[in-house]
Amino acid sequence: MGLDIKMNILGIIPVRGGSKGIPRKNIRPLAGKPLVAYTIEAALKSELINKVIVSTEDSEIAEVSKNFGAKVLKRPENLAQDETKTAPVLVHVVNELKAGGYVPDIIVLLQATCPMRDEIVIDEALKELISSDNDSIFTAFWATRAMPLWRKNHDGSVTALYDYHLRPRRQENYLIEDVYCEDGALYAIKYDAFETIHDFIGNNPKIYPVERHIDIDDLEDFRKVEQVLIKKG
Are 86 and 108 a contacting pair, CB within 8 Å? Predict the structure, then answer.
């Protein structure tokens, strides 16, 4: 491999019990397995991640996660609210592990709502991060083609996101150079950067381009992913 695989690489899967869009979403059966199981299995199959932690306040999610091989860290209720952001949850996990003597070299955020991301994506992205001078990496898809985009500003004015004075023919692509959109499947950050900013994207991030992974937000997303997984067998 040519990389130092003795690094402490921590995979954190935040899984809250109080999902509103789809009740009990994270343990809802998806093509025969609970949703969270796909991310746990991908993390455990990774060659580079060597500790997998599910952070949850929910006892049923904790039990399901343990059954699929993850270690579980009890999350305080104040970090399991609708308005809770992800970064403080990661900080809590890292601090709890540090108190027990474990300090990670890299922290990897894996969201359970992206079940189609596999261990290959995880490992290839981590290799790129380890081999680079960047402090973090995240998966993103290319926002291709599409359209002459405009942004509506707070003051009511609008701003074109392309040069409308050089309006291309309808048949041509409207490309905003190389624009990428985070897909939520993976974020990884080196420990020093994480300790400085307490977030999962650093000040010098790197994009790992992927085909878009569906981030399950509603029942329609759930059905789409399930259809794909069933076809894959």
Answer: no
pLDDT at position 172, please? 54
Query: Domain map of the chain by residue range?
Result: 9-140+179-232, 144-178
Secondary structure of residue 94 in the 3-state scheme: helix
Res 216: pLDDT: 93
> For 204, left (φ over 0), alpha (ψ -120 to 50), or beta?
beta
Does 9-140+179-232 carry CATH code 3.90.550.10?
yes
E-strand stretches of 57-200: 71-74, 106-109, 136-142, 150-152, 158-160, 180-190
Model confidence over 85-129: pLDDT tens digits? 999 999 999 999 999 999 999 999 999 999 999 999 999 999 999
Q: What is d(CA 31, CA 41) in angstroms, rounded to the nearest whole number? A: 15
Contact call for residues 122 and 109 (beta carbons, < 8 A): no
pLDDT of res. 140: 93
Residue type, 46: S
| Separation CA 146–CA 143 (nearest Å) | 8
How far is it, in rounded angstroms, from Cα 193 to Cα 199? 8
